[in-house]
């Protein structure tokens, strides 16, 4: 089977992390976001993956090429010279996606769930129409694409991208399967699949909704990245508890993921909902909860971190306190005893005064 992953866009909502790495390569639960998707696709028997790239293609290509061999899958980079939106990339990859009559998957690169590719394919083949969208229910539908079904049917009646007024709480989860005939609807130019293609397919009764079971999150912004981390770790606790840190270690509380190369000091309390990346060094008496510590970061003695993301190779001095969805970019230093509340701190900065209100430090 074939699949296309939309890996373009500037990822501005996940800054400062995306100033260093393109969004799909930022590690979510210690693995590049896009690897979660590649693994799911490969498990469902997909052998041909197109990565639709526009932003910083070189770094994307050099890091992802190695997965071809590792996962025994063909990865083709389809590079846009101008951003083609969420539909244009399908036209650009027409040769691969349309090479036979079999349907293909398309996914946004910033979503996390237990990818139900096999059930989705079976559902799609059973209704026989042109496309199927995976849908899920959320409390805040206005930041997503919203769908309304025909009464008592899986067939979609309306698709509205980011509605201003309440339409429904059933939203587009960013996972699709299409017959190659969809390519006849898409021209090779910047086009939004959500605004320009789905409404027409719905009007032609060619689009169905497949309801997702279990957790789902778009992790394309820090607050949601942290919520997604909690959901993912809770799910791991249910399904693969052996991957989580052992609670008999004396310092782990609840669902925590720690890379084996990380070093943890004495008398720490870590969890719940913490991920610690490779080569992280945690000092003594450190308290971490609901936070993400990326590769190579150093958290010195008695630091306290909650609801925050610490970027690669950053250093938190002794007695620092970080909270309120603070996000430190790559190689940030926070000096001893500093308090940061909701700070978004750009790469390579050094912080020596308290940040008491949410703000961007450039
Ligand atoms: N190749 C390419 N080119 N990819 C792009 C481009 C582009 O010009 N623009 C955006 N993308 C990719 C992004 O990297 C992401 O994987 C996907 O397209 C969706 O873009 P986002 O910027 O993340 O969109 P969103 O989160 O506001 O909304 C989308 O996702 C929601 C679910 O998370 C929409 O599909 C909504 O309908 C949906 O509910
Ligand atoms: Mg998104």
UniProtKB/TrEMBL annotation:
- The answer to keyword Magnesium applying to this record is no
User: What positions does the domain Mannose-1-phosphate guanyltransferase C-terminal occupy?
Assistant: 253-361
Q: In which pathway does it act?
A: Nucleotide-sugar biosynthesis; GDP-alpha-D-mannose biosynthesis; GDP-alpha-D-mannose from alpha-D-mannose 1-phosphate (GTP route): step 1/1
Q: Which reaction does it catalyse?
A: alpha-D-mannose 1-phosphate + GTP + H(+) = GDP-alpha-D-mannose + diphosphate
Annotated organism of origin: Rhizophagus clarus
Query: Which parts pass through the membrane?
Result: none
**Domain Nucleotidyl transferase stretches:** 2-232
**GO MF:** GTP binding; mannose-1-phosphate guanylyltransferase (GTP) activity
Identification of the protein by name: mannose-1-phosphate guanylyltransferase
EC no. given is 2.7.7.13
Give the family, as the similarity comment puts it. Answer: Belongs to the transferase hexapeptide repeat family.
Q: Which UniProt keywords apply?
A: Cell cycle, GTP-binding, Nucleotide-binding, Transferase
Family matches, as InterPro entries: GMPPB_C, GMPPB_N, Hexapep_transf_CS, Mannose-1P_guanyltransferase, NTP_transferase_dom, Nucleotide-diphossugar_trans
Pfam families xref list = GMPPB_C, NTP_transferase
Cite a single GO BP annotation. Answer: GDP-mannose biosynthetic process
